[in-house]
Amino acid sequence: MSIDKPVPTVTLPDGQTVPALGLGTWRMGEDASQRPAEVKAVRRAIEMGYRVIDTAEMYGEGGAEEIVGQAVAQALTAGDVKREELFIVSKLYPHNASRAGTRAACERSLTRLGLGHIDLYLLHWRGQHALADTVAAFEQLKARGPIRHWGVSNFDNSDMDELAEVHHGEHCATNQIYYSLGQRGPEFSLLPRLRAQGMPAMAYSPIDQGSLATHPVLRRIGEQRGATAAQVALAWVLAQPGVMAIPKAVQESHLRDNLAAAGLVLTAQDLAAIEQAFPPPRRKTALAMR
Ligand SMILES: NC(=O)c1ccc[n+]([C@@H]2O[C@H](COP(=O)([O-])OP(=O)(O)OC[C@H]3O[C@@H](n4cnc5c(N)ncnc54)[C@H](OP(=O)(O)O)[C@@H]3O)[C@@H](O)[C@H]2O)c1
């Protein structure tokens, strides 16, 4: 596969640029026997050049944050990377998202990560706590230093409307959503709205949890371009303006392929074949959630 361009970046509303490709960690930290391989995968990812790592207190009930923490500690000790070069994302359970609960959950996440701050802290999905309380806690954490940015996840248009009404709601840095060739629904109105607000979307499950890796049309395009079907699926997501993607991978070949996919430029012919196989939405559908 020829790499024609560097890893793209997205710009957060406050002007900070972030690499548009990161590493997901869902399903890590669930099985103790897999931990060494998972720590090694995150460490290898950092060695290869990944700088954005996405985790959550939910993943392995804190186990994934511990894995990220161990891998980051090893990478920092080895001098592979400086802390300020990394962009660590974690997420808050909605049932913890009261004012005091948010602060306490952030403290627990920082302990598991072994870090002094989280670069981006997200509300994982809407829950029973008032958004105003969660945002107030996020703003306080940002002012005091434990987090650098905050954002939301799985927020559809109506949730974004509510957020806009909340004091400091405009400080939201991103909305992490399910977006892939198999889930193009956000293109109808959510993505245009985020773009109008200057807010990047963070696409999760960008290769549909691996299922797009065997799609025949993507395979055929990939064969012509010296790439895999998964790389084509990922390159397509990354080609969408204002969108970053966080594919999860443990296998080293997947880590390498996904990083290389950030440099894959799809031709007009490739894009036309993709449009035919995965038509864009014609009406608003509810935001899908994993
Ligand atoms: N905010 C939310 O509610 C939410 C929901 C879901 C996910 N997420 C985040 O988004 C991340 C990514 O989503 P995801 O994990 O659901 O799905 P995904 O990234 O679309 O797919 C991950 C699966 O695809 C495989 N894979 C990765 N790269 C591949 C490649 N190049 N070729 C073939 N197979 C490949 C992985 O295998 P190996 O692991 O064996 O390498 C894994 O089984 C999560 O890990 C999590 O951090 C957030």
* Total number of helices: 10
Shape: globular
Strand neighbour order, sheet with most strands: 3-4-5-6-7-8-9-10
Rg over CA atoms: 18 Å
Q: Structural class per helix/strand content?
A: alpha/beta
Helical residue percent band: 25-40%
Spatial separation of the terminal alpha carbons: 31 Å
Q: How big a fraction of the residues is strand?
A: 5-15%
Which consecutive residue ranges, at least 5 long each, have pLDDT under 50? none
The helix/strand order is: EEEHEHEHEHEHEHEHHEHH
Largest sheet: 8 strands, parallel
Provide a descriptive summary of the structure in words:
With 290 residues, the chain is α/β, with parallel strands linked by helices. The chain is built from ten helices and ten strands. Strand 4, helix 2 and strand 5 (87-92) form a beta-alpha-beta unit. Helix 1 crosses helix 2. The protein binds NADP nicotinamide-adenine-dinucleotide phosphate (NAP).
In short:
It is built from ten helices and ten strands.
Task: Supply the key terms.
single chain; 290 residues; alpha/beta; eight-stranded parallel beta sheet; two-stranded antiparallel ribbon; globular; binds NADP nicotinamide-adenine-dinucleotide phosphate
Sequence-ordered SSE layout with sheet pairings:
Blueprint: E1 9-11, E2 17-19, E3 22-24, H1 35-48, E4 52-54, H2 63-78, E5 87-92, H3 99-113, E6 118-123, H4 131-144, E7 147-153, H5 157-165, E8 175-178, H6 190-196, E9 201-204, H7 216-225, H8 229-238, E10 243-245, H9 252-261, H10 268-277
Parallel strand pairs: 3-4, 4-5, 5-6, 6-7, 7-8, 8-9, 9-10
Antiparallel strand pairs: 1-2
Bound molecules: NADP nicotinamide-adenine-dinucleotide phosphate (NAP).
